[in-house]
Design brief:
2 domains, Rossmann fold
């Protein structure tokens, strides 16, 4: 029997909420999936509301200034960016609530916040004449908890792409709220098998849908030019691209690599948190911090590396993480060394995996001695399968399965 053709979700109205705003400079799964949704549907992308604490910042950045202008009526709340794509900067302020330890009191204030948030979304939905819409929640546990009841969407899809319950902010109330959100959803989609197994504890409607990589940016057929900032940095260059976050990256591992291999240049490309700024890594002469770089420049940095690395910590936050940067490295044909995790075992044929510091160094040495051209073609081919189009089709496939089940239960 021929396999059933997967039809993308199309000709629907989609409301997207999440943890990343559309105009944030960093990339995110939510934004990349929104691009796929808007190819086939009308989409309302809802930026998260400001918290009251943001109103008292002494030196707001340009992003915050824009949001404050919306609150004060100086800029429109709803903007149509394309024929079928709208962005909402909700004219509402959320009250801080996570400090409340008593569940009942937290629930009351969180419901008020959700109600205010929902009012602005409903106003926008009415203005653009959305109907029978799908609510897609990119793991906004608190601000999105009551929206299925308040917005009353035709279908509710919950997207899990991180184990957020390992983050301190979500430990107080997230442990009881996220399982309830998963149970509410008509469909739960996850970007790693670890996260799917977590979701399956609460809902049989949980599916693994893979992870995408923007191959229009990380295109190996385009010639790369080594950034001038690297001109004075000797080879071999061992590079990392991404946010330098202390709760996700192993600073001790990076220090071990650099200290024990002074002839290697360790190049770290991305914004640093305070933990990295205070790190003794800054005292090593063969460790180089480039700061944040434009997305369009990242392929040039990757192209200049001899080996790319993912030195992630193993903790509750990262254990189920699908590191999209690994796909970006592989899409550029580069050899990669990464810390071994359950998710990374999926990459085992194409990535060198290490279980400890000494093994990580040995894997880098092995990667430096590879036949680069022959292996790079294999890596590129593997990464080319991990597109956002394919991930969107997997979401559509899971949606189709659950729609058929709903239809069978209703007797249609």
């Amino acid at each position: 029997m021929a396999e059933k053709t997967i039809e993308p979700i199309k000709d629907r109205d989609i409301v997207i909420i999440g943890l990343q705003s559309w105009d944030e400079p960093i990339g995110s799964n939510c934004k990349d999936l929104a691009v796929q949704f808007k190819k086939y549907n009308r989409v309302l992308y809802v930026n998260f509301p400001l918290n009251r604490q943001a109103l008292f910042q002494k030196n707001p950045n340009d992003y915050l200034k824009k949001r404050l202008d919306v609150l004060r009526g100086r800029q429109p709340e709803l903007v149509q960016e394309e024929d079928n794509f709208y962005v909402l900067n909700p004219r509402v302020v959320m009250e801080p609530s996570n400090w409340i330890k008593i569940s009942f009191l937290f629930n009351c204030l969180n419901w008020i916040n959700n109600y205010r948030f929902a009012k602005r979304i409903l106003k926008a939905i009415k203005e653009i004449n959305f109907s029978n819409f799908i609510l897609f929640n990119d793991q906004d546990i608190y601000r999105g908890f009551y929206l299925p009841e308040l917005l009353r969407p035709n279908r509710f899809i919950y997207y899990i792409r991180d184990y957020l319950l390992g983050v301190d902010f979500f430990k107080i109330h997230g442990n009881r709220l996220e399982p309830q959100l998963i149970k509410k959803a008509d469909l739960v989609v996850c970007n790693s098998t670890f996260l799917q197994n977590y979701a399956l504890k609460f809902s049989a409607k949980s599916y693994y849908v893979g992870q995408g990589c923007d191959l229009s940016v990380f295109d190996p057929s385009r010639e790369t030019v080594s950034p001038s900032i690297l001109d004075s940095i000797a080879k071999p260059r061992i590079g990392y691209i991404g946010a330098l976050a202390s709760h996700r990256l192993d600073r001790d591992l990076l220090f071990y690599i650099a200290e024990n291999n002074p002839c290697w240049s360790i190049v770290l490309v991305g914004p640093e948190d305070q933990g990295f700024k205070d790190s003794p890594l800054h005292q090593l002469k063969n460790v180089f911090f480039t700061g944040n770089q434009p997305m369009s420049e990242l392929p040039n940095f990757i192209g200049s590396f001899d080996v790319c690395i993912n030195p992630q910590l193993l903790n509750d936050i990262t254990i189920g993480n699908y590191p999209r940067k690994v796909d970006e490295y592989l899409a550029m044909g580069k050899p990669v060394v990464a810390v071994k995790t359950l998710t990374m075992e999926f990459f085992a044929k194409y990535v060198h995996l290490a279980s400890n510091n000494a093994e990580f160094v040995e894997k880098i040495k092995l990667a430096l001695g590879e036949n680069q051209f022959e292996n790079s073609q294999t890596r590129i081919q593997f990464a080319s399968e991990h597109t956002w189009e394919n991930s969107y089709l997997e979401i559509s496939k899971a949606f189709q399965i659950e729609e058929e089940r709903i239809s069978l239960r209703s007797g249609h």
